[in-house]
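Mods, move this if it's the wrong board.
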Amino acid sequence: MDLQSILKEQVLSQVAGQIAKKEGLDNSQAQSAVTSAAEAILGGLGSNVKTKKGAESLDKALGKHDGSILNDVIGAATSAAVQKDGTKILGHIFGDKGADVTGQVAKQSGVSESTAASILSTLAPMILGGLGTAKKDGGLDSGGIADEVTKSAPSSGMGGIIMSMLDKNHNGSLVDEAIEFGTNFFKKK
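Not the wrong board. Structure tokens:
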């Protein structure tokens, strides 16, 4: 099963309902916020796997994210421990741009920045869990993981905004930034 299928079938629809209840949003607003947050995370991961070193770092991190979180998506969506882990993951993905990413997700989906931050930190471990499942099911190595992320990361919309935001020197190339992110990706975890 590929990452897009895993996210659509096992994560996004179930999480949106829980987010709506938890954050006091209507279902369409929750769905919009969850979609924007997922695209932002995938855009950030897409930036990170542009180098072999970044892809290898993500592959290594997936040893801790085997997909078991997807066995109880609803429970994970309300777990403080999952959010704490998610906050760490987001720090590795976005570096010092985390607040900017949160602001973009809030703006795009019409939710507060605190709600956007909560959604991002809830989704990050689930998306890595989805990648862990795709890795396991597909027997993927770091190159296969990079391909899966690249295929799933939107190049326009929120994903494109995030990729542009992570391109620090605005030269249109993520290679220099990806090397830096790849070097630091999940190193502290």
